[in-house]
Amino acid sequence: MNDCTIFTKPNAVLSSHAPIVGIDEVGRGTLFGNMTVGAVILPNELSGRFDEIDLTNTKISLLNDSKKLSEKRREQLFDIITDLALDYAIVDVPSTIIDQINIYQATMLGMKIAIETIIIKNNLNEKNTTILIDGNQLPSMDGSLGEHFHQIYAMIKGDATHSSIACASILAKVHRDRLMIQHAKSYPKYLLDKHKGYLTAKHKAAILEYGILPEHRRSFSPIRELYNQGFINSNYWHS
User: Fold this and answer.
1) d(Cα 118, Cα 236) in Å, to the nearest integer?
2) Which residues contact 231 (CB under 8 A, 6 or more apart)?
3) Do 149 and 126 meet the contact criterion of CB atoms below 8 Å apart?
4) Is the peptide bond before 188 cis (omega within 30 degrees of 0)?
5) What residue numbers does the annotated binding site for a divalent metal cation cover?
6) Less crowded by CB within 10 Å, the N or C end of the chain?
7) Residues whose CB falls within 8 Å of the CB of residue 72, separated by 6 or more in sequence, listed in order
8) Tens digits of pLDDT across the chain (239 residues)
9) Which residues are annotated as a binding site?
10) In terms of pTM, does the model score above 0.90?
11) What Enzyme Commission number(s) apply to this enzyme (predicted)?
């Protein structure tokens, strides 16, 4: 699965002796494009449950679940987090892989790659590293370095509960949104910069009028049914 794209912090120096890695994903339910996983290691004094730490006088005082923040606020926090984080990883899992192995397996794959990337890059020790993943499911780390890390926990609504997961959510969200804005320049009639690939009325109308694009997820309904009927935008498909 080497089609995944990975971005990490250049020249990151991990000074934490007991790092907490926060992980979240975005784009799981969209019809178009990649699903993105973010992983973040914050300085220890900034990492914790929102009800247990005080971020008031810090650079991330406005931190919250990315879904509750405006696009402008997320953009501001993205730059702050990438600068402030001891390290981060952003993993893009393309629609081709999603269609091959299904969205659940693709999500677990993206999380596994993010974890492995952080572990290898920082030479993390399984005895003192904690990995927190948003949601209620954990990726299988069998056959990888991560299988030795036993402090891996799923946290329901983690992006609204823990600062490290919230930061991972923002990095993943802003990164993916920027990709959708780039796609919108290539496919202006589909308004991808507005709905970011989710099934909205305008997105559905564009699909029905102009056809399916190569980046649409052909394993998702209604894309699957339309694709099987040959309903594609032939201007963008190449044999």
Assistant:
1) 36
2) 211, 212
3) yes
4) no
5) 24-25, 134
6) C
7) none
8) 568 999 999 987 776 678 999 999 999 999 999 999 999 999 999 999 999 999 999 999 988 766 788 889 999 999 999 999 999 999 999 999 999 999 999 999 999 999 999 999 998 888 789 999 999 999 988 877 777 788 899 999 999 999 999 999 999 999 999 999 999 999 999 999 999 999 999 999 999 999 999 999 999 999 999 999 999 999 998 75
9) 24-25, 134
10) yes
11) 3.1.26.4
C-alpha span between 225 and 239 (Å, rounded): 20
Which H, E and C letters describe 34-97, residue by residue?
CEEEEEEECCHHHCCECCCCCCCCCCCCCCCCHHHCCHHHHHHHHHHHHHHCCEEEEEEECHHH
Q: Write the single-letter amino acid at 13.
A: V
- The number of beta carbons lying within 10 Å of the beta carbon of residue 83 is 9
* Amino acid identity at 237: W
Phi and psi dihedrals of 236, rounded to 5? -120, 0
Token pair for 107: 């999500």
Residue with tokens 């796609």: 183
Pairing relationship of beta strands 20-26 and 152-155 according to DSSP bridges: unpaired
The closest alpha carbon to 25, from 102, 86, 101, 109, belongs to 109
Q: Name 230's Cβ contacts closer than 8 Å, sequence gap at least 6.
A: none
Q: What is the DSSP string of 114-181?
A: HHHHHHHHHT--TTT-EEEEESS-----TTSGGGG---EEEETTGGGTBHHHHHHHHHHHHHHHHHHH
Compute the distance between CA of residue 27 and CA of residue 36 in angstroms, rounded to an integer.
6
* Tokens linked to 175: 């990164």
Q: Residue 119's CB: how many other CB atoms inside 10 A?
A: 23
